[in-house]
Design goal:
Layout: H1 8-14, H2 56-69, E1 73-77, H3 80-91, E2 97-101, H4 106-115, E3 122-126, E4 142-148, H5 160-170, E5 173-177, H6 182-185, E6 195-199, E7 213-217, H7 219-232, H8 238-248, H9 251-270
Parallel strand pairs: 2-3, 2-4, 4-5, 5-6
Antiparallel strand pairs: 1-7, 6-7
Helix pairs in contact: 1-2, 2-8, 3-7
Length: 302
């Protein structure tokens, strides 16, 4: 059965697993090896080596993530920030300009505001809920637009459809950090984004026992990210890959329950006289916190 015909629950359990099974094992074994025999037929980036992100555990977890997002390919990294920084450095070079959401995860904000400038890359913040203002921030050197599906920590939701349309109209690479939504609530590549990014430390893994990141998208673009990651060295080790793959088997079950619980808590808190404001996508009447069309109507408030 093709991935397109399987439910998300089934993909979470079975997608990416080695076929045929390794010695009949229903769980992908941990291949605790940095080096592998090489037949000499490939180019440098194809040499089987853990830093080149192509060993058995890396391949298995990358295929599962790609299947869950409905994308052609994925590459995993040693952390969410390794995935974010590598993806940005893949699509940007000295002299380029980035449009970036004005409400960002602190690590991403620090990288954009402190590190990109030292590399000769400029940026402008955009109001994520005001697409009419984006055009004025464009420059001839603008190459990409970066948002978060649900921002960390204020949980603001950009006009995601407008981001995709704007990027296509202007020939920009569209990127979104999909960590807080997870593939259960939103699949950016299916909605037109060029790259979907994750901190696998959070919902994907779900057990608070691994740091990991992922970049998801079209095969050609993800290959470019992988090759940049090969050089930067932020590879994910086999045991972390094993833990991430194991965690994703229950992703759909966990996130749906988290959606339900978080929605209940948000409504109770919003009605409590001691609470002045609740930051939660899905509560009615709150600007910039409306779930995008085609997504789950309830978001997990993590």
């Amino acid at each position: 059965m093709s991935s397109a015909r399987r439910s998300l629950d089934t993909l979470a359990v079975h997608a990416g697993s080695p076929r045929p099974r390794v010695l009949g094992a229903i769980v992908t074994p941990v291949f605790q090896s940095a080096m592998y025999e090489d037949d000499g037929a490939g180019v440098y980036h194809d040499i089987p080596y853990i830093r080149l992100n192509n060993t058995p555990n890396q391949i298995a977890v990358q295929r599962k993530i790609a299947a869950l997002e409905g994308a052609e390919a994925a590459v995993v990294a040693a952390s969410g920030m390794a995935a974010i920084t590598t993806a940005l450095l893949t699509v940007l070079r000295s002299g380029d300009h980035l449009l970036v959401q004005d409400s960002l995860y602190g690590g991403t904000h620090a990288f954009v505001t402190h590190d990109l400038e030292t590399l000769g890359i400029s940026y402008s913040f955009i109001a994520s809920d005001d697409p009419s203002s984006w055009e004025a921030k464009l420059r001839p050197t603008t190459r990409a637009v970066y948002v978060e599906t649900i921002s960390n920590p204020l949980m603001r939701v950009p006009d995601l459809e407008a981001v995709v349309a704007f990027a296509r109209r202007r020939g920009l690479v569209s990127m979104t950090d999909n960590t807080f939504a997870s593939p259960v609530n939103f699949r950016p590549v299916e909605r037109g984004f060029d790259l979907s990014l994750h901190s696998g430390t959070k919902y994907l893994n779900g057990h608070s026992d691994v740091a990991a990141g992922a970049v998801v998208g079209a095969e050609g673009l993800v290959l470019r990210v992988k090759q940049k990651l090969d050089h930067l060295g932020g590879s994910l080790d086999p045991h972390a890959c094993f833990l991430l793959e194991r965690g994703m088997k229950t992703l759909a079950l966990r996130v749906r329950r988290q959606n339900e619980s978080a929605g209940t808590l948000a409504r109770l808190l919003a009605e409590h006289r001691a609470v002045s404001r609740v930051h939660y996508p899905g509560l009615p009447g709150i600007p910039d916190t409306t779930a995008p069309r085609g997504s789950s109507t309830a978001w997990a408030a993590c």
